[in-house]
Amino acid sequence: MNFTRRDFGKLALATLPVTLLAKPNSKFGGVQIGVNAPYSFHGMPGGLEDVLKDCTDLGLSALELRSQPVEQFLGAPTSYPAPRQQPAGAAEAAAAALEKWRLSASLDKFKEVRKKYADAGVAIEIVKFDGVDKMKDEVVDYAFGVAKALGAKALSCEIPVSKTKWLGEFAAKHKFMVGYHGHGNVTNPEAFATPASWERAMSFSKYNGINLDIGHFTAGNSTSPIPFIKQYADRITHIHLKDRKLNQGPNTPWGEGDTPIKDVLQLMKKEKYHFQATIELEYTVPQGSDVMKEMAKCVEFCKNALA
To answer: What topology does CATH give the domain 37-305?
Structure first.
């Protein structure tokens, strides 16, 4: 891989219209590789157009897109300002303003965002909303409407396990999958980390699904995620790719930890699983490198694993 040469080539084409450039394609061996954005682009501009450019520069043709850059692109007020930087009550006021904006927003505008990304060759396959368990019912309906308007296959979120019966009812109402994101906290019964946590959520609704972070699963459960993936492949909305050490070990550059990233990708290829394998860049960027170079390494890792 020669990322520098690839970058140089892009500079030469920078003035051409997007429609004249080759569209990205990150489906390798039948497996769709994507990215959690703008989360993975640490320290970089995270606007809607920034994310689209980063994806196309990396050749990524799909992603899990967070709601914030979409809503802000469409004019939503900034939500939840840092308490230390704002007077008392400002966070609550900002949250109320965002809620008001959401309940008056036209879903047609979100369809325009979908088209903007689709025209560039990037599919918004999952939409992530934060703070879902704190939303009023009508705002939850809005979140599902946004995910559908953006062309997503699923909505993802992080909420307590006990709240998934409630959210599962909304998912059934909208006939739309929810992927619950897991971390490595295996001692908290409200956290998604052990197989039992997802099994409980899935018992509440057939639309309650799994956003399995294979790095966190490996570190927290100190075992391979592959048996769990095989057992519940039909309920997985997408997986997060990262490398971690066993026994709650740290994030590492890919290939240096204990997470069987390559084996998971090869399983997806063999079994023709249709859910996205989503890159999350969480390890510390080495000195002399940068986020885009490390992301390019992750993309190349996936491509080689699926060759």
So the answer is: TIM Barrel (3.20.20)
